[in-house]
Amino acid sequence: MKKICIIGLGYIGLPTACVLANNGFNILGVDTNKKIINDLNSKNIHIEEPDLRAIFLKALNNKLTISKEYKKSDVFIIAVPTPLTKDNKADLSYVVSASREIANYIEKDNLVILESTSPPGTTEEVIGKIINEKTGLVAGVDYFLAFCPERVLPGKIIYELVNNDRIIGGINEKSAIKAKEIYSSFVKGKIYLTDIGTAELSKLVENTYRDVNIAFSNELSQICNDYNINVNSVIELANKHPRVNILKPGAGVGGHCIPIDPWFILEKVKRKNTLIEKCREINNDMPVIASKKIIGLLKRIENPRVTLFGASYKENVSDTRESPTTAIYKELANNNIEVAVHDPVADNFKHKLLSMEDSLDGSDCLVLLVGHDLFREIDFENVFKLMRTRNIFDARNFFDKRKLEKAGFNYYML
Ligand code: SAJ
Questions:
Q1: Arithmetic mean of pLDDT over the chain
Q2: Ligand 1 within 6 A of CB of 151
Q3: Is 3-189's fold the same as 284-413's?
Q4: pTM of the model
Q5: Each residue's pLDDT tens digit, 326-342
């Protein structure tokens, strides 16, 4: 049975480790975080994701071991974070330390795969270089090296891990074929083989395409304001065209992928004023634009109090990383507005999360930032009683405007 060492037991590494263990591989999951190791070994998972717990428990009964220590393995899969530095560059320190560790255990004919999203060149120029220098082995000759980006959507990770198509880039054809042998054990989608650089850039292009599309919709929302036309109706109708698919505007783009990956593309690009950078700017400005509108609504109210509904970076996930709510909170608080936050789904938010009742008590504006399904069940009669001034600012076109206006609320959209 092939031994695979998966490095980094986060949103990608842990589900991948489980799926591989449940498909006949002997898996060692490694992480530098002691708490994660202890929790996992006590059967507690640190990630909220539908169906993950079930496949994790099954994997423990199969061949999944969790440890802080690396071991000799046939395959090493790197799934560590690649965050953004303050000057919009990739922080590859986790990739570097994983590569150094792998170099201590790698043997001839092993396979090394990078899954973490990284700037083009990382697989060969960082991982390959470190391992080659430390071991004297040569990537593509003595061991196989490939990049196989994850493409799963948080909230649907387990389904998409199995059903999405995948791209594999190899340092040579043999490396790509070796990596395909591993992924084809569980992937039901198609697997496309290419070179490493093309695979690295394709991954970044997917997320950048989404960022550019959302920026277009956010710009449209501002243009529609000038014309006093409802942007959502415009997008809905334009999308009836068979070749148009505009995404939804909102109060910002969050998460740890879409706002970050466009910068990885630009890392070695000499051109200035790229469309990609402009779109980042448009999306980054949205929390401030939304805040200004909220502040404008409340200007005649003394000691205004605002309630933000939604702290996670998008609907129905608990993850609050890069959530636009953080920026909006800051902007409102800096303008002397008392801010309360309610989110029945989010985890680990920077500010205190209150119950719905406490967050709305005496509030002058309910701001809907994240369209969690649970918010569909809100009892607006109760909301009406709790609030001091009945303003609703709907940044996601989520509520039924007519129904709320009929119930006596002042309804505003972004
Ligand atoms: N958003 C909008 N309008 C939309 C769609 C999204 O404002 O119409 C916002 C969301 O509210 C959120 C942000 O964009 O704040 C990102 O959410 P998302 O659902 O677009 O993307 P992620 O970050 O959850 O996952 C993306 C996915 N990439 C693509 O769809 C191209 C996923 O498949 C990737 O695997 C993931 O990034 C990743 O890990 O790279």
A1: 97
A2: yes
A3: yes
A4: 0.95
A5: 999 999 999 999 999 99
